[in-house]
Amino acid sequence: MTVLIIGGSGFLGAELVRQATSAGRVTAATCNSRPGHAADVSWHRLDLRDPRRLGEVIDTVMPSVVINASSGAADWAVTADGPILLTQMTARRGIRLVHVSSDAVFSGTSRSLYDETALPDPVTPYGAAKAAAETAVRLLHPDAVVARTSLIIGDGHSAHEQVVHELAAGTRKGVLFTDDIRCPVHVADLAAALWELASSNAAGVFHLAGPDALSRYALGVLIARRDGIDPSQLPTGLRAKTRPIGALDVRLDSHATQGRLRTRLRGAREFLGTAR
């Protein structure tokens, strides 16, 4: 299996690269500026907004599987238009596609959990871009996987963990919201689940989030305790008082997907329960 990881120098992308090379897969990855540090990987500079360059990379690598782990935040051209181009090109070439999406496609106004059948109703520019990309993938590449996930945590290197350290040290302004609920997932679990889906014939929408629903503050407390930081140093606030508010309570229900996977998606209370 020759694999191409779009966004291979990012946090999730780097873990996908690590697991791919550990499994002996022929691995190529893209970066926007600087390549990653993994050995035995062919790196290709790519701006997803450039269709000519995207086609060149795909035709050079000739992958059997592409995982799109890129992140362009609220930049529509990167987060929506780029994945749409990627979907068109992989579909035409008969290449398997796994597209990583986000719980940001939901408004957080539902009184129930969001399972794989829930329809996107985004309330932020980022969520709207992610929802547009999802729609294109499902329409143009019916055999592809759309994998929605939540806050991605690692072993000290994720953006969320860095924010906790900076807030506690007073080197960053801001707060941790007590009313912003998500279902964090460990980056290693997420990457393993994505590879499991990529290696199967599964198609459609899948949810890859942890079973624990936590506020950003509660998550921060777990991170602080693991890392020997006094949780009382963490400032708190309400996202409902910010403008624009954005999605508040978004709990992905991953039970249906978990039932199809060998990979166990651990909850944050478990994977943050021990010191590093």
From TrEMBL:
Q: Which residues form a coiled coil?
A: none
Q: What residues form the membrane-spanning segments?
A: none
Q: Which Gene3D superfamilies match?
A: NAD(P)-binding Rossmann-like Domain (3.40.50.720)
Q: Which Pfam families match?
A: RmlD_sub_bind
* Tree of life domain: Bacteria
**Cross-referenced InterPro entries:** NAD(P)-bd_dom_sf, RmlD-like-bd
RmlD-like substrate binding domain mapped to chain residues = 1-234
- Name this protein carries in UniProt: Sugar nucleotide-binding protein
